[in-house]
Amino acid sequence: MAQTLTDKVNTRKTFAIISHPDAGKTTITEQLLLFGGAIRQAGTVKGKKSGKFAKSDWMKIEQQRGISVTSSVMQVDYDGLQINILDTPGHEDFSEDTYRTLMAVDSAVMVIDSGKGIEPQTKKLFKVCRMRGIPIFTFINKLDRDGREPMDLIAELEEVLEIDAYPMNWPMGMGKNFLGIYDIYNNRVELTHPEQNGDNDFLPLDEDGAIIGDYPITESTIYTQAMEDVLLLNEAGNPFDEEAIANGELTPVFFGSALTGFGVQTFLDAYIDFAPSPAAKKTEEGELIPTSKEDLTGFIFKIQANMNPAHRDRIAFMRICSGEFEPGVDVTIQRTGKKLKLSHTTQFMADSRESVKSAVAGDIIGLYDTGNLQIGDTLYEGKNKVQFEALPQFTPELFMKVTPKNVMKQKSFYKGIQQLVQEGAIQLYKTYHTEEFILGAVGQLQFEVFQFRLLNEYNSEVDMTPMGSKIARWIEEEDLDVNMSSSRNLLCKDRFDNPVFLFENQFAMRWFEDKYPEVKLKSLL
Ligand code: G4P
Description:
The protein has 12 helices and 32 strands. By secondary structure, it is of the alpha+beta class. Mean pLDDT is 87; it is low at 40-58 and 65-71. Bound molecules: guanosine-5',3'-tetraphosphate. Guanosine-5',3'-tetraphosphate is lined by residues 19, 21-27, 46, 48-49, 90, 141-142, 144-145, 257-259. Guanosine-5',3'-tetraphosphate binds next to helix 2.
């Protein structure tokens, strides 16, 4: 029987995967792709040693630094479901990019290194995840190594993210003594070395939480310790609460070792039990149910130029929110009213791209763009206008003056700057009178990536003069008086020509507020 639109949408699970660099995000993604048969061999997504890099690590700067700067999209079929995995930059300097990706997903998976916990420089990244209010699943990785005490890790998670945690399973030892997990959710024990227990991968538990039957492991103090910990958690820990998971207030926590593949499938099986399918999205016209409309709608959350430098392509990533995509569909770009035929599209497999034949709410498709689209654009089919809520912009904190080194190459400088700004890679300001270019960023690495890409992709070398940190505050056009500008509160225009002040520090801002009490200062997110 043909699947209805509702059937199809209900099979979609779309999540973003977030971690500190090196916590194991790529290794887990790879395991998930292996389960789904999307790849045949570990190392396809990323093989640092073999020098083979997949699209999540396409950029030279990423290879050099071992970080992922850009997000990519992968899809995998598992247990009758289509799971869409959106990779995110593993560095907090790119929190804004991560947040935009979070807008395009229905849940998030956080990967934490059990040896490190929540590293200070990752707090912001994970907090962004919490701010979005979607279900968050936590995978504590690298149990095959000696790490920190699981209780400490849970306490830290709760404290730093201000979220409740519920361990779905509990590690039995770690490092050389890692025996497996005490699986609270599935009421069983899962073993790393099943051959020592008669080739049983899983041993069921009785109602007191003890393994049924006599096995070597029942003699182990590591097992009895795990049982005691779980008893303590039952008494003093948070209760399991499905609604709290759905609201992003309680994170189910899983332990495992992605490198050995241990615990990843158990995680995946529980994840699909609780991860939501695409939900209604807010629009200016009210809530839009993913299956309520036969017409296609979606929004652009990411633009990536030059993913393939040989072709100088520019891909706009669209999250589908309702209806069904078919090649050749006509849509309207809400911002400009311009019509667009979606014929040249792509979806992303583990190690290849394919043109999209069909896609529904929850799916991400790549549109080859010639400059029509911007981040945040709503696209809709048919006559009924739709506009999704705006994608939030972060208030930049660091600023840099930028000029082309070679005045003869101004054209490529302007082209590069315009495209990278449209991608959301960095924010652009101009001083009010002299129109000098100022770049604004959330983190220092954004400048480095900008400079690197301008040179490599647009052949434009630039001089960058740091201006340090500033406080950016927007004002209404009608409050504008150019005489209010000074070196301590520099008046600029953003790329939409809105007036914005860059204050030297809090003191300068307070001085301004005292002097011009009628002017309301606004920040972004
Ligand atoms: P990331 O995407 O979050 O940055 O992390 P990635 O998966 O690349 O993993 C970072 C390093 O940690 C890799 O080692 C990887 O093999 C290792 N790793 C991932 N999961 C586990 C685990 O469960 N246990 C252990 N012991 N190690 C794990 P590398 O040597 O830096 O890279 P590679 O040369 O092996 O690719």
